[in-house]
């Protein structure tokens, strides 16, 4: 029954995503949808590390920013096809994530959080200072992947579907890992890393692999955003706030569930765009996000989806401790027990007669 309900829910979700561009009343709402899908890709990518290993990274904007700039610079300086450049940029960032992961994953807890923040701050300074290559504080304009005949609303629609496709691939990869032996090892690390290592789990190799996969998908999300938005600013691309949004979205929806980051992205992404539209350049949206994060930690530490699942389980009929047996089944059980008893008695009598002889 649960498998049927999950299949129906997945079908409804797919239909809603595919129908959104045609239902959006204006280009602004459609652009908000693209932003939300972009957030969903980033949050799901972050969840490869946070959800599986329990390592909280506030500096994951490092990899989305690197992916965005790698894609843009490859298109500008090599005239590569934009989609090839995006994929190549993701692979470059994944390769860079190997030495970064080797260095940063040797520490845990608050130390890992500090290292992740330091990484994004270092990259911010580098990309701001290297103006002749990255554009510096003036920003970098990214060539459009579609020709000028494609109007802005059509651009939004196409990129909405492209983000949705990338999100589907990331969700499929997360689902496959969750049901694999590799995923079991990662979850053992999340629960108790020392105990997992004592049981023979190669904890460091597992963590590094999840870290690289997360960086790869995050870089693809950053590259796709660069091709859509058309302009890169290091202050935004390498912002701790972007990494904090990834954490907030995943925690809000539920880091241990497949669609948790997606649900969190819908809520947080819409809230951020709403507050920015209502209050302009003020920082009120940061206050609202801080309050939301505090409420989640206090009242729903596991996220919305686990909380709702727990609530629904209370209303589901529980399995009876004593199985109901019909009168016919009971009579059959009695006949079987009686036959078994008579057989045991005959065996005992034969053994007694043999002993007496």
Describe this structure in a few short sentences.
Helix content is 79%, strand content 1%.
Task: Give your account of this protein's structure.
The N and C termini lie far apart (63 Å). The chain is mostly helical and 357 residues long. It has a single domain, classed as ABC transporter involved in vitamin B12 uptake, BtuC (Orthogonal Bundle). The chain has helices at residues 2-23, 27-53, 61-78, 82-104, 109-129, 131-134, 152-178, 181-191, 193-198, 203-229, 234-237, 240-253, 260-279, 284-299, 304-315, 327-356, and strands at 140-141, 231-232. A two-stranded antiparallel ribbon has the order 1-2. Helix 2 runs antiparallel to helix 10 and helix 13 packs antiparallel against helix 14.
Task: Set out the fold topology.
Blueprint: H1 2-23, H2 27-53, H3 61-78, H4 82-104, H5 109-129, H6 131-134, E1 140-141, H7 152-178, H8 181-191, H9 193-198, H10 203-229, E2 231-232, H11 234-237, H12 240-253, H13 260-279, H14 284-299, H15 304-315, H16 327-356
Antiparallel strand pairs: 1-2
Helix pairs in contact: 2-7, 2-10, 2-12, 2-13, 3-4, 3-10, 4-10, 7-10, 8-10, 12-13, 13-14
Run of helices and strands: HHHHHHEHHHHEHHHHHH
> What is the number of independent domains?
1
* Extended strand count: 2
- Can you tell me the CATH architecture? Orthogonal Bundle
- Total count of helical runs of at least 4 residues: 16
How far the N terminus sits from the C terminus, by CA atoms, comes to 63 Å
Q: Strands of the largest sheet, in order across it?
A: 1-2
Mean pLDDT across all amino acids: 85
Rg, alpha carbons: 28 Å
Give the % helix: over 70%
In the CATH hierarchy, the third-tier topology is known as ABC transporter involved in vitamin B12 uptake, BtuC
As residue ranges, the low-confidence spans are 319-325
The level-1 CATH class: Mainly Alpha
What proportion of the residues form beta strands (DSSP E)? under 5%
Give the overall shape, derived from the CA principal axes: globular
- Let me know the largest β-sheet: 2 strands, antiparallel
Structural class: mainly alpha
């Amino acid at each position: 029954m649960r498998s049927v309900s999950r299949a129906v829910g997945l079908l409804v979700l797919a239909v809603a995503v595919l129908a959104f561009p045609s239902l959006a009343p204006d280009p602004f709402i459609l652009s908000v949808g693209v932003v939300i899908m972009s957030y969903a890709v980033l949050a799901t990518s972050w969840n490869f590390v946070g959800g599986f290993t329990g390592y909280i990274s506030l500096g994951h904007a490092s990899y989305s920013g690197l992916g965005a700039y790698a894609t843009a610079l490859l298109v500008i300086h090599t005239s590569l096809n934009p989609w090839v450049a995006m994929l190549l940029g993701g692979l470059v960032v994944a390769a860079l994530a190997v030495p970064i992961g080797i260095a940063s994953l040797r520490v845990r807890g608050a130390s890992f959080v500090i290292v992740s923040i330091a990484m994004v701050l270092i990259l911010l300074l580098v990309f701001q200072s290297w103006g002749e290559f990255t554009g510096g504080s003036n920003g970098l304009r990214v060539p459009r992947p579609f020709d000028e005949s494609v109007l802005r609303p059509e651009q939004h629609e196409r990129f909405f579907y492209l983000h949705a496709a990338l999100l589907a691939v990331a969700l499929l990869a997360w689902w496959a890992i969750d049901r694999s032996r590799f995923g079991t090892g990662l979850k053992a690390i999340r629960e108790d890393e020392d105990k997992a290592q004592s049981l023979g789990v190669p904890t460091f190799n597992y963590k590094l692999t999840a870290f690289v996969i997360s960086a790869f998908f995050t870089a693809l999300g950053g590259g796709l955003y660069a091709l859509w938005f058309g302009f890169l600013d290091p202050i935004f691309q390498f912002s701790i706030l972007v990494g904090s949004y990834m954490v907030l979205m995943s925690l809000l929806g539920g880091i241990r569930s497949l669609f948790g980051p997606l649900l969190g992205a819908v809520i947080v992404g819409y809230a951020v765009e709403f507050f920015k539209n209502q209050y302009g350049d003020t920082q009120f949206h940061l206050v609202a996000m801080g309050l939301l994060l505090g409420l989640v930690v206090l009242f729903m530490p596991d996220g919305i989806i686990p909380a709702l699942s727990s609530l629904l389980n209370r209303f589901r009929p529980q399995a009876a401790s004593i199985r109901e047996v019909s009168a016919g089944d009971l009579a059959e059980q009695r006949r079987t027990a009686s036959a078994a008893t008579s057989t045991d008695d005959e065996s005992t009598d034969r053994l007694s007669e043999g002993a007496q002889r």
